[in-house]
Specification:
169 residues; alpha+beta; 7 helices; 4 strands; 47% helix; 13% strand; disordered C terminus
Length: 169
């Protein structure tokens, strides 16, 4: 099992456990207050690990804005009430956004500082080659199109991104 440690807005250490190896890999459920920062980073790392183009990752992250339209005011209100945060309303409103540019920048840092997602997992998280491959295998399913469509397909319906990615053999 590998553990990613993060700090929450409440300044408490949080851990995300990932058990990708073994005959029955355990699913992970990344979660954070707005579903965009810690969650977005974990999902970005996993997407980049399996070769999803950063523009596609950013488009997926940008869809978080749809959910924040409804939930954003409640999040702002809760964050303003937090005794651990001493931020004004305008600053909090800027925190509760999910711009594509944020993830594009994060992808660039991942490449420039760590040499890409696989090297990040191997060198920074100290995962072995078998564990990294196990994650890839758990995330990438049948390499053949499911519905006869040979091209990757992206659809947005009711604010939900449906993305079919077929990895080359």
């Amino acid at each position: 099992m590998h553990v990613l440690k993060t700090k929450s807005p409440e300044k408490k250490k949080k851990k995300l456990a990932c058990s990708p190896a073994g005959p029955d890999p355990a699913p992970i459920y990344p979660y954070c207050t707005a579903g965009k920062d810690r969650t977005g980073t974990v999902v970005m790392l996993l997407f980049r690990l399996v070769g999803v183009p950063k523009e596609t990752v950013a488009a997926d992250y940008g869809l978080t804005e749809l959910g924040l339209r409804e939930e954003g005011p409640r999040l702002v209100e809760n964050l303003l009430k937090s005794p651990d945060l001493a931020l004004d309303e305008e600053t909090v409103k800027q925190i509760v956004v999910a711009k594509k540019e944020y993830v594009l920048g994060l992808c660039d840092v991942l490449e420039e500082r760590y040499g890409g997602a696989e090297r990040y997992f191997r060198n920074h998280l100290k995962m072995g080659a078998a564990d990294v491959q196990a994650i890839k295998s758990a995330l990438v399913v049948d390499e053949r199109p499911m519905f006869g469509n040979e091209e990757p397909k992206e659809e947005i319906e009711n604010g939900i991104l449906s993305l079919s990615i077929f990895m080359p053999q």
